[in-house]
Specification:
The chain is 65% helix and 6% strand. The chain has four helices and two strands. Helix 1 packs parallel to helix 2 and helix 3 crosses helix 4.
């Protein structure tokens, strides 16, 4: 199961493949799909830099020697959204 989850994340960037409920193991899913602090920080940097560049009429940026365009920004926004959802659910579960 864990290999399947890692491969799903590598190929799709998210858990987009339907998995039957009886095969879902929550802990491994959280391990694999929860963005790390570094991934969240990088996503936030990309979004902030891209929004600034977009206001200047640019459709792509270079940050830390890497090229970023709309597709990367979209993925960065998904990472931030996922992190927010997970942290909200985690807070609700800890009550």
């Amino acid at each position: 199961m864990r290999l399947y989850e890692f491969e799903s994340k590598r190929l799709l960037g998210a858990a987009d493949i339907p998995v039957p409920p009886w095969e879902v193991h929550i802990e491994p899913c959280h391990e694999v799909f929860t963005p790390s602090a570094e991934e969240i920080a990088q996503a936030q940097r990309v979004i902030k830099a891209f929004e600034k560049a977009e206001r200047q009429g640019k459709a792509a940026i270079q940050l830390d020697g890497k090229f970023f365009d709309y597709a990367v920004v979209k993925r960065s926004k998904r990472i931030c959204k996922l992190a927010k959802i997970i942290s909200t659910q985690s807070l609700q579960c800890n009550r």
